[in-house]
Amino acid sequence: MLQTVKPLAPADLCWLDPADCGPGSPHPYLLVDTDAGALDEQAVAALPCPVLGLGKFDPACDTHVERRDIVRVATAIHKAPLAAMVLVQLMRMTQSMSPQAALIAESMAFATLQQGLEFKRWLSDTGSRSAAGPPARAPLLIRQERSSLHLTLNRPDEHNKIDVAMRDALCEALDLAVLDRGICQVVLTGAGKMFSSGGSLREFGTTKDAAVAHWVRTLRLPAQRLLQLGPRLVVHMNGPAIGAGIEMAAFAHRVTASRKAWFQLPELSYGLLPGAGGTVSIARRIGRHRLVWLALSMARVRAAQAHSWGLLDALS
Length: 316
What we know:
Layout: E1 30-33, H1 41-45, E2 51-54, E3 63-64, H2 70-79, H3 81-94, H4 99-114, H5 117-126, E4 140-145, E5 148-153, H6 164-179, E6 185-190, H7 210-220, H8 222-229, E7 233-237, E8 241-242, H9 244-249, E9 254-257, E10 262-264, H10 278-281, H11 283-286, H12 288-297, E11 301-302, H13 303-309, E12 314-315
Parallel strand pairs: 1-2, 2-3, 5-6, 6-7, 7-9, 8-10, 9-12
Antiparallel strand pairs: 4-5, 10-11
């Protein structure tokens, strides 16, 4: 098991050489005692690794950890230091961007990691990839009641995973809602016991050219449509939401969930970062520091905790 390192004083960061931090260095992350003083935001921004605060909240940190979480987070970073670095650099950069621009930046960062050693290692370890065949049932149920459009993710036997067929069906339905101002409300939920298990892992890496994959995301990412719906979008999560599931849901003006639901961002274990809009949607609900903690810890967060953070507006 990894041993907890001794926290640095905030002043120590100003003397660190960035070349001594980050992937391939002795310091893939830095743990800082925030009770010992304030951090220099410019010093943090220059470091190519996550800066973890231990103690009172300091906004210059990338995230804050409790002592009980240090080994968990540190272990995840040691396994995927490139993905951890790109994640925090992205979040430092996009916090002042418009949501639309931040989505493009997220896709570019995701594309960068798709060519990275960590993602390629995950692909090698998990075997060959292939796109799913034609769906046995309609991936998305669409029902209109007067001025409300009801959309239901309809793959309960596959935990409502977001594969190409589901993504395309969502984009088509959301395009209709964006264009038709007579639709006053779009209600999104899932069939079965899980809202969504996130992206289809069997399709990860099937587009070999990362630049082409970025181009496809800019055209076919549901997040862009969800963002445009603004106050018209309501999401109810009938169960757990993983990865893209919670990333998409967090765009809604109102988000509710079952009390039995839980949420997780597991992308770091693939050598990636949240790529379905979550660095925008989740961060703008709960702040970038909690988003980074979710992504680095890959912990499951229960509905009650998510509600207290503001990720959910109500429980049912």
